[in-house]
Specification:
5-stranded parallel beta sheet; 2 domains; 13 helices; Rossmann fold; alpha/beta; 351 residues
Length: 351
């Protein structure tokens, strides 16, 4: 572990121990009783984390139609994601506008607070302490002991979609695998994309997502081109974030079997394309969870990180994973991805 990361981890653990010594002790095994009128959910920072939180929000609203669902966001990305969700009552940014945050969050008392992180996080533990709630729920971890009324006991490598939905059992609500599937709030889509989606209905192309949130999760454009060229009889669609539009256009111009597509403005527009794909090839990003929501098979490109695969991998869909042995996705060779893609295509034919 790098020295900087090691220091951050040591600080988080020290802060958790400080809270364990100074905060009023909570048993971790209490049973929730009484009315449920409001719940504060501490949402994780990345878009993929937000997608995996949607089944919990959806099921809470369905089981308790009148409950106020407050999302405590720790990034602009997560705040924007939930702003348009009709099941969410309000979104509050924990690190911005402190006066407003104090007025809207810290001065009131919720029936339940749910910390979604299954490991010690300084900001999440601080808000878990500051936000007043009649009943506080977290995931079992040595650094969470004594800080929550109820600790959820799912095994560490359980998928985060299931870990989020574990709160429902505390409230007496059953949720099976399908009910814990991610979903996105419907939004208006641009006219250009509407016309493009009509083309995809009959084509059912293969999607490739060339963008990733971190450099060590990126695959090179040369390798994407090599992959597409290996399947001349199949049609492809290139998905990318705004920062990779030039690379997207380059691939579309150089590969005749790629169907040029309009840039997408948000994750819902991306999901509309993914839903119409025969399968998706993507690095370890939020698009894995979007594909899980649309039931689209995935070939995932991953670093050698077992916890990323088990906790944040494809959920309840057919998939093939190609794992780099170098610590970076760029270390994966096109031959390995082509082989995984072929296996998944053959499985679709025989299923």
């Amino acid at each position: 572990m790098k020295p900087k990361k090691k220091k951050k981890r040591q600080f988080r653990q020290a802060f958790a121990r400080f809270l364990q010594r100074t905060a009023p002790k909570r048993s971790g095994s209490e049973v929730f009783t009484g009315p449920l009128n409001s719940i504060a959910i501490l949402a994780q920072e990345k878009l993929g984390d937000c997608v995996l939180l949607t089944p919990l929000v959806r099921n809470l609203h369905r089981a308790f139609p009148g409950v106020e669902i407050h999302i405590i966001a720790f990034s602009q990305a997560s705040a924007r994601f939930f702003m348009n969700d009709p099941d969410v009552t309000a979104v509050h940014l924990a690190k911005k506008e402190p006066i407003r945050y104090k007025k809207e969050v810290l001065t009131r008392k919720f029936d339940i607070l749910f910390n979604t992180k299954d490991h010690p996080s300084t900001h999440f533990l601080l808000q878990s302490r500051l936000i007043r709630a009649r009943f506080k729920v977290g995931h079992r971890n040595p650094f969470h002991e004594g800080l929550f009324d109820r600790l959820l006991d799912l095994e560490y490598h359980s998928h985060m979609a299931l870990k989020n939905c574990a709160l429902l059992e505390v409230l007496g609500v059953a949720a099976d695998t399908e009910q814990c599937r991610p979903s996105l709030t419907e939004m208006a889509i641009q006219e250009e994309l509407t016309k493009y989606l009509e083309l995809l209905e009959s084509a059912h192309p293969i999607g490739i997502n060339i963008s990733a949130g971190e450099p060590n999760r990126m695959w090179t454009i040369e390798k994407w081109k090599t992959l597409v060229d290996r399947f001349p009889r199949h049609r492809f669609v290139v998905l990318s974030g705004p920062e990779d539009l030039d690379s997207k256009r380059l691939l579309e111009s150089e590969c005749s079997n790629i169907m040029p597509s309009p840039p997408t403005r948000n994750l819902f527009e991306v999901s509309c394309i993914v839903r119409r794909l025969s399968l998706l090839v993507t690095p370890d990003t939020s698009l894995v969870h979007i594909a899980s929501g649309t039931k689209t098979p995935v070939v995932g490109l991953y670093r050698e990180a077992p916890q990323d695969i088990s906790r944040f991998g494809p959920y309840a869909i057919p998939y093939e994973l190609v794992v780099s042995t170098t610590g970076e996705v760029r270390g994966i060779e096109p031959e390995a991805v082509a082989a995984a893609l072929t296996r998944l295509l053959q499985a679709k034919v025989t299923s």
